[in-house]
Amino acid sequence: MKKTILLVCRLADHTLRENVLLPLLESGEVAHIHVLRDTPADTMDGRVSYLCPERESRSVLRHIGKVRRGVAAVRRCGADAIIGVLNTPHGYIGRLIAWLTGKPYIHMTIAGHREFWVDGKCLEKLNLWALGSSAALTVTGSRTKAYLTGHGIAPEKLFILPNLPDEAFARVTGNGGPRQYDIVSFSRIDRNKNLILLVEALARIKGKYAPRVAVAGDGDCLPAVRAAARERGVEGMMDFLGYVSGFENKVKLLTDSRIFVSCSKGEGFPVSLLEAMSCGCVPVTSDVGDIVDIVHHGENGLVFTDTDDAGELASCLETLLSDEDRRLAMQAAGSSLKGTFSAAANGQIWSRVLRYATKG
User: Fold this and answer.
1) What is the tens place of the pLDDT at every residue in 243-297?
2) Whether residues 32 and 21 fall in one domain
């Protein structure tokens, strides 16, 4: 029998649709999804409905209302399982609703194992205790699974469920001609994204190479990054494009770039990497989260280990800038991932998750 699900989350509309709703509906196990959220979105041909407040509020007290609406919905609609996305607050809201109603709770991680430890040791212990007791947990990759099993969570209730890019990226044909940019960075520019490392790496190679670099994104560290670029004499290499939105604009930039750089100090399973590889960019990325489930060093990209060592990143960039044949081989290997990550594939995983969590 198909199941009714209560989903508790706060996600951007496109992420909610592509990464959660479509795969759940593809599972063949779900009749209807009630989404507990601040604002409504796509109803997905009537199989999705939204439990939203009459008035939008930014007060933290609105989460009490979510618990009340969630409990009422479970009792009214007979939900078979509750799914919460991310730890705070919606994972805890979903866990509380499940406890109050006696329904199985499934916890969905989308930011990797850093979801559990990023706020310090005390909260890590609380997260592992409260969310580790879920009926099932989805994780973004093998390292997150290893982290949780290493903290005593039974491996049989952990299911690897990769994050998904927009499915339209699988249909991108790429750019067979010259590319305007040698390097592209596409992210929010904050302390965690660590874009200052790219500036320092460019300063190290500027005597031998003069790559054109596109920086797409905005954030509170942007002024510091621009100042560092001026101080290190690489501002002339870098085009700061600001926030780039819209599928067509993202595709145009990525298909016009050769190398995609991510300097993050912490990630889960970033869809930006899959999107870039779909567009023919070769990734050069820090070894964080579950990234090595996507990027295999020397095969379809390059991975550096020290997010404070500009020399290691500079060496990776030099490898690709100096050897076009090697870059093209990695580009071809990366493009082979197209179609591997899809709503249909994740739907099969969700089918196993739901059957395990509900025991049927």
Assistant:
1) 998 899 999 999 999 999 999 999 888 999 999 999 999 999 999 999 999 999 9
2) yes
Structural domain for 209, as ranges: 167-335
Query: CB–CB of 134/157 below 8 Å?
Result: yes
Asked whether the predicted pLDDT for residue 60 surpasses 80, the reply is no
In Å, what is the CA distance from 266 to each residue of 11, 259, 270, 271, 273? Answer: 19, 20, 10, 14, 14
Lowest mean pLDDT among 54-68, 128-142, 211-225: 54-68
Same domain, 324 and 349: no
Residue 319 has pLDDT above 90, yes or no: yes
Residue 144, domain CATH: 3.40.50.2000
What's the burial of 76, exposed, middle or buried (CB within 10 Å: 0-12/13-18/19+)?
Answer: exposed
| 291 & 349 share domain | no
Report the SS3 class of residue 204.
Answer: helix
Structure tokens at 41: 């979105």
Task: Return the structure tokens found at 12.
Answer: 């951007």
CA-nearest of 172, 167, 128, 130 to 149 is 128
The domain total for the chain is 2
Kindly tell me if the per-residue pLDDT of 175 is higher than 70: no
- Rounded Cα gap, residues 37 and 52, in angstroms: 6
**Tokens matching residue 105:** 């709770």
Q: Are residues 307 and 348 in the same domain?
A: no
Query: What SS3 state is found at 258?
Result: strand
